[in-house]
Amino acid sequence: MAKRTADWKPGILPFTLPFLLLLALGLWSYKPASSPLSWVLTIVWSLPVVGVLVGIQGALLIRRRVRRSEVMIPPSPAEQDFLIVLVPTIGRHDTFPALERSVLSYVEHLPEFFPHLRIDVLTEEGCEAAEDIDQLAAAHPSVRIVTVPKAYQTPNGTRFKARANHYAHDLRIAQGEALDNVWVLHMDDDTGVGPDTGASLAQFINRQRRADPAHAKHMAQGILTYPRENAVNRFTWLADAVRPADDVARFRALTGLGTPAAGVHGELLVLRASIEATIGWDFGPKAIVEDAQLALTFCQRFPGRSDWFNGRCYGASPASAKDFVKQRERWAWGLVALCFNRSIPLRYRWFLSACVVTWILGPFQHIAVVLAVGFLIGDLNTSPLAQSVVILWALNFAYVIWTYWEGLRLNALASARGHRKWWEPIVVVALIPVFSVLEGLGGFKGFLRFVRREENKFVVIAKPA
């Protein structure tokens, strides 16, 4: 995996050039319109602008942070803190190869910066790959198996991954590990680390030790990337370029400024054990996006106390387009339910809700669908109600191009070769209309499952090795 990250910063030209071209084209082709189609497009193609502005803010904050790198504490071992890496796994045979790859990466790369380290592999009693997992732990003294008993139940009846996380949370409290100097690094069973991860994470933790206790951070999120060599499907690897871009945009802006209102993802999420002990993971039987619910609860209880760090973890894209849609469907299903969760104040839910609405409306915003509707009603004028709206549209569409362009660059930097192949940027931009269909389809299917009040399911796709 590539080791260089310090010299990376979000590009300006990949956003500015598409914005200017789209703006010029939109202003040139504008024709006054007041049809039903124009009313609908004026709304739905303008909706993403809130998330876009937040994302632009996050990218600019990274550029500023790179310029002010002299204020960063040089990486050094976190000698006074204890790091627990928590890796929940369903323990199937088809997920074990990715789990093994991930655990071996923790064993190799983290001890240099964390002399006090334990890796907890969190499994369910009787899982089918239990023997292989036991052998993996036996070969590495820093690895411990934590087995969730089948009979274990949380007070609120939480299920799936959140139930397992809550069991580990209960166990840490019982063993006296819910302390300020104990940090829990949450990872997925297909997501590893590299040489840069430990350095950046230790840099963050050491910075909190030197900070004023009244302002020290309790949570932080890094960047999830997808190295090319971890991909078994080049198409889904290109489609997942959008995910690291989101980490350096929306997540950088919100989580990095102290309030993770956009949620967090379950990889490379570090949390003080003492703080996690006050929140827990017992969110009830309907929780299937436990990481996002944890983030919104954190917003309520510890405003201003989260951060972002410029470290990467290394995951793998879904093995097929079918798995890609299935993954997005589960996320959307859980996020829609979270947006309607009245136990969380609206002031913390509104931004996530706006982003989710934009997502689930994806199939109806697609240019092919719009043109098909226009053809059927005999009106192919897709101009907005007012010419000034063209500025918002150009902003939104340019941002989409930027996310795939820069996300691909991040994934390529995280790969062994450390750079993009000449054709990849061209192909990833050309395939955006196809990727948007898959993203929108997954989002809309998740919404339908919520509307139909189907039984919650935590679908775990096969994990590439």
From TrEMBL:
EC number from the UniProt entry: 2.4.-.-
Alphabetic keyword roster: Glycosyltransferase, Membrane, Transferase, Transmembrane, Transmembrane helix
Domain (Glycosyltransferase 2-like) ranges: 183-399
Pfam family, one: Glyco_trans_2_3
Keyword flag Transmembrane: yes
The keyword Chloroplast appears for this protein: no
Example GO molecular function: glycosyltransferase activity
Top-level EC class as recorded in UniProt: transferase
TM regions (residue ranges): 12-30, 36-62, 350-378, 384-405, 426-448
Top-level lineage group: Bacteria
PANTHER family, sorted: BETA-1,4-MANNOSYLTRANSFERASE EGH (PTHR16779:SF1)
Protein name: Glycosyltransferase family 2 protein
Native source organism of the sequence: Streptomyces pathocidini
